[in-house]
Write a structure and sequence with these properties.
The chain has 682 residues and is α+β, with helices and mostly antiparallel strands. The chain is 34% helix and 27% strand. It is elongated and about 125 Å long. Magnesium ion binds next to helix 1.
């Protein structure tokens, strides 16, 4: 059955709770204090079914002092009932609640003129005009305005009909995504233990599911589920849910915490966002301390203004004064940043303060972690007195540190902003654009694939689709479980080829660069997968050859005739010397006294594996192979054959200086095994 969450909004005493009671026969004022004082203090809940639709009502307090409680409920609204008492008309919290709903992009709603029994028809018309004026140009512009009396029941049938039509049109929340439930109440139920309630904003929760509580990263188990007072096996996005949780005490949880599919989202204390400043309210100043409301949570933080939306999206030209005297984000949440509104060189006045009605890009530094992802809507209220000043949408929950008041940073904001007009070269969707920016910024380390959900805010299906399209277009590359920018990968390939060119020029006698050196020099913090990928691509395109070392495809050793001659002569000397190889003086003589030349050629022959080292001695690889075969053959001639040092010296005509290292070499090669003073051939 379809579930729709309907919330109330409006000034104190305008009849919100009475209306919910009249519609559902359930009193949403559940607290004793509320009933005694006749006002709503905290969120109240009720439900009603009609036309195959489950309506969950969330009733909010109208009192100015309890707007923070209203904010804990409004995030889950699918539609709002904006309640205006016909005898008082539009009042301050009518405006504030309406602004909050507008800034949070509540998709739909109705206006209800309550207490119609207290006024005449002309007054109703007057109030209707005032309401129309308030909602002009907003999501409620065309919403029905329904006069009712909760006391006489007049108009309630018309309201129910309007609600059903609203419910039918309401868009279902994404049930396929990861589970996300911002907690709005926590209590202990006798015999059950810890119970939490909230609106499931996405995904599903099933009995026995394991969930994660953020920000404390705690695992809990779902032991029971209730939807509208009835036990269920499963809850789906859009429902008001009560969960009985195992593995956690009531005192460990509170309003503002979030239940999630484990690993799907993370916490953050720094985020980039687009903000709209409420028209007719206070300006939003750079460095201001604010209350950040998202989901059911409220966190204190500070605002750094990057620039106006127009500045960033319409021009590359920086705002007046940027460049010199660059402002950076506030260093710590408590440090006061006072931008120079500096006269003289133009100053930052334009973007150091956003006037009411303006739109800007901001960076928020929070004093405690919040659980947000890209696309989340939020509200900003002044620290004191706490009035609603702005609201907007999260663009990046995990931006890198650094200055934000420069042209490049503003362009980045515009790129992440789904409402900013795309530039002509941007053919991808807003999601792809944002994901692309995040991947590019992750550099060679790459972006973990899961960040498409936790940071870019995409559902798993949308994340897969966006990733596939970016991969297909060559904008990104997948390296292991990381996504890396395509431009960067191509640049790395180019740098690798260039590095090999330089290397071959400087080291013409080397076969190539060692893999480790290339990785360290060019790939820094990249995982091995990216290095392997770039090398494999260059091998496939026949640009490089990857053996022990990396070399350009056409690379051959460039030896001078003298070098070539020395190399050949030295190799011959080692081959002919067998197990009695030439010493340093002999080699120098071969190279006509040029010890340096002899040395270089010996190293080259070693890299080419023509010569091999045994301890400090050098032998021709052929000589060592011959030795291994000869000793192994002894066993075939006489099973259990033994060799002592003396016999070994005699057999090969060598001195002790050579015999000992060679016997140890044979042990290492598992041709012989030492038993006391003799070797057994194995
Ligand atoms: N005559 C008349 N009185 C009403 C009507 N609706 C509500 N009232 C009265 O108005 C007073 C306030 O109603 P509530 O429903 O508590 O108002 P509220 O908007 O929920 O107030 P808060 O939750 O504190 O913001 C109560 O005394 C109600 O009986 C109505 O349609 N007609
Ligand atoms: Mg009330």
């Amino acid at each position: 059955m379809k579930s729709v969450v309907i919330g109330t909004a409006g000034h104190i005493d305008h009849g919100k709770s009475a209306l919910v009671r009249a519609l559902t026969s359930i009193d949403p004022d559940r607290l004793k204090e509320e009933q005694e004082r006749g006002i709503t203090i905290d969120l109240g809940f009720a439900h009603w079914q009609a036309d195959g639709i489950n309506f969950a009502f969330v009733d909010v307090p109208g009192h100015e002092r309890f707007v923070k409680n209203m904010l804990a409920g409004v995030g889950g609204f699918d539609a709002v009932l904006l309640v205006v008492a016909a005898d008082e008309s539009v009042m301050p919290q009518t405006r504030e609640h309406f602004e909050i709903c507008r800034l949070l992009r509540i998709p739909a709603g109705l206006v209800v003129l309550t207490k119609a029994d207290l006024v005449d028809a002309d007054t109703i018309e007057l109030v209707r005009l005032e309401v129309r004026d308030l909602v002009a140009g907003s999501f409620l512009e065309r919403a029905p305005i329904v006069p009712v009396s909760s006391r006489t029941g007049a108009g309630l049938d018309a309201l129910r009909a309007a609600l059903v039509s609203l419910g039918r049109d309401a868009q279902a929340r994404p049930a396929a995504g990861t589970a996300r439930l911002p907690i709005d109440r926590v209590f202990t139920m006798k015999g059950f233990g810890t119970v939490v309630t909230g609106t499931l904003v996405s995904g599903q929760i099933g009995l026995d599911d394991e969930l994660e509580v953020l920000p404390q990263h705690r695992r809990v188990k779902v032991r029971g589920i209730q939807v509208h007072g009835a036990r269920q096996e499963r809850a789906t996005a859009g429902q008001r849910v009560a969960l009985n949780l195992g593995g956690v005490e009531t005192s460990d949880l509170s309003r503002g915490h979030t239940l999630l599919t484990p690993g799907s989202l993370d916490v953050t204390t720094r985020l980039d966002a687009v903000v709209e400043v409420v028209a007719g309210g206070k300006p939003l100043r750079h460095g201001t301390r604010v209350r950040f409301h998202q989901g059911t949570s409220e966190v204190l933080g500070r605002v750094a203004i990057a620039g106006t939306v127009d500045e960033a999206s319409s021009e590359v030209r920086p705002s007046a004064g940027s460049g010199r005297g660059e402002l950076v984000e506030p260093r710590s949440p408590t440090s006061e940043v006072r931008p120079s509104t500096g006269s003289g060189r133009g100053g930052h006045l334009a973007s150091a303060e956003m006037p009411p009605g303006g739109r800007a890009y901001i960076r928020l530094r929070l004093e405690l972690p919040a659980v947000v992802t890209r696309g989340d809507r939020y509200i900003l209220r002044a620290y004191s007195p706490p009035m609603t000043i702005a609201g907007g949408e999260v663009l990046d929950p995990r931006p890198a540190r650094g200055g934000i008041r420069n042209a490049a940073a503003r362009q980045r904001f515009a790129c992440l902003d789904p409402t900013a007009s795309a530039r002509p070269d941007d053919r991808g969707s807003a999601d792809e654009r944002a994901l692309g920016v995040m991947i590019e910024e992750a550099g060679v380390a790459g972006l973990p694939a899961g960040a498409a959900t936790s940071r870019a805010g995409l559902s798993p299906a949308a994340a897969r689709a966006a990733t596939d399209r970016l991969l297909h277009a060559g904008a990104i590359v997948r390296a292991g479980d990381r996504l890396v920018g395509g431009t960067l990968v191509r640049a790395l390939a180019g740098q690798l080829v260039k590095a090999l060119e330089d290397y071959h020029r400087e080291q013409p006698l080397s076969e190539g660069m060692s893999r480790e050196e290339v990785r360290e020099r060019l790939f820094g913090p990249a995982g091995p997968a990216l290095f392997d990928l770039v090398v494999a691509n260059l091998v496939t395109s026949k640009q490089i050859v990857a053996r022990d070392r990396l070399a350009l495809a056409g690379h051959t050793l460039a030896l001078t005739p003298a070098e070539e001659q020395a190399r050949e002569a030295i190799e011959r000397a080692f081959r002919e010397g067998g197990l009695k190889p030439p010493d340093a003086d002999a080699l120098a003589a071969i190279a006509h006294g040029d010890r340096d030349l002899a040395d270089r050629m010996v190293k080259l022959l070693m890299r080419q594996k023509v010569l091999a080292k045994v301890d400090t001695l050098l032998f021709h690889a052929e000589a060592l192979r011959g030795l291994r075969e000869d000793v192994a053959a002894l066993k075939r001639q006489a099973p259990g054959a033994r060799l002592d040092v003396g016999a070994f010296k005699d057999r090969y005509g060598i001195t002790r200086k050579y015999a000992i290292p060679l016997l140890e070499y044979l042990d290492r090669e598992r041709v012989t095994r030492r038993v006391g003073d003799v070797r057994v051939v194995i």
